[in-house]
Amino acid sequence: IIPTTHYNIKAPSTGTLSAAEISSDTLLFDRKPSKKDARTDESSTSTSNLSLLDHVNFNVPNHDYILDFYLDILGCGLDPRVAVNLMDNDESFGREGLIWASCGPNQFHFPRDEQAQVLPGHIGLRYRSLDGLKERLVKASSSTNDDSSSVKNNKRHNNKCFDSYEIVVGPSGETIVQIQDRYGNVFHCREGPEKLTQYRQPVVKISDQDKFGDVALRYGVAEESDCRGIDYVEFDCGME
């Protein structure tokens, strides 16, 4: 697990990493060197120098499902620094360029590639309330045709930008909305207090129509994204 506020992973003493120093298929995080780097006793594993999971990268074959899923369903915001990639007059609506989806202090990055990347595990997302997410999932599911929407093993499936979702109760009694996207990536969405509130990624707002035109009308948010951040990234590691 790579959590964003508490850690059991030690990082090497390399200082703050920049986007230019990281290849496009890595998990980027910012960290600051600490005096604890020099410690070698067991107690040093109780803390970590990781300070922020900046973004999770998924290579995708196209952005059609990505824009609908991450912005319309999950409730992330479009980063204005890449909004120009959608400002195109042709029929493809500029979906060939890089897309960044912002959620609180974190982001998802989506460069184009022939093969979609699938995380072997799941990603935990944070919301102040799950009501909006549930409403968007129900609306998207009900908008499909009867022959393309079904319920299998208590999971709702459709032919839209996500494959299925399920609402479950966690071990501590909290509600978890589990969603699987078109490519097989899984998200566990929970509500609760925000974390790392001192950091904010930029988002395109509806009021930015003078800068981004129809892109702001289509993907702009009122003030901030509904999804408030990435809580953790969990990898399934099999034991041999």
First-last Cα distance: 19 Å
Percent of sequence in beta strands:
25-35%
Low-confidence stretches: 1-46, 90-94, 145-150
Task: Supply the helix-strand structural class.
Answer: alpha+beta
Structure description:
The protein has helices at residues 64-73, 131-142, 209-212, 214-219, and strands at residues 2-3, 28-31, 50-57, 77-78, 99-103, 106-110, 121-127, 150-152, 155-157, 162-169, 175-181, 186-191, 227-235. The chain has 240 residues and is of the alpha+beta class. The strands form two sheets. Strands 1-13-7-12-11-10-9-8 form an eight-stranded mixed beta sheet, with helices on one face. The protein has a five-stranded mixed beta sheet with strand order 2-3-6-5-4, covered by helices on one side.
Provide a quick synopsis of the model.
With 240 residues, this protein is an alpha+beta fold. The chain is built from four helices and 13 strands. The protein has helices spanning 64-73, 131-142, 209-212, 214-219, and strands spanning 2-3, 28-31, 50-57, 77-78, 99-103, 106-110, 121-127, 150-152, 155-157, 162-169, 175-181, 186-191, 227-235.
SSE layout:
Blueprint: E1 2-3, E2 28-31, E3 50-57, H1 64-73, E4 77-78, E5 99-103, E6 106-110, E7 121-127, H2 131-142, E8 150-152, E9 155-157, E10 162-169, E11 175-181, E12 186-191, H3 209-212, H4 214-219, E13 227-235
Parallel strand pairs: 3-6, 7-12
Antiparallel strand pairs: 1-13, 2-3, 4-5, 5-6, 7-13, 8-9, 9-10, 10-11, 11-12
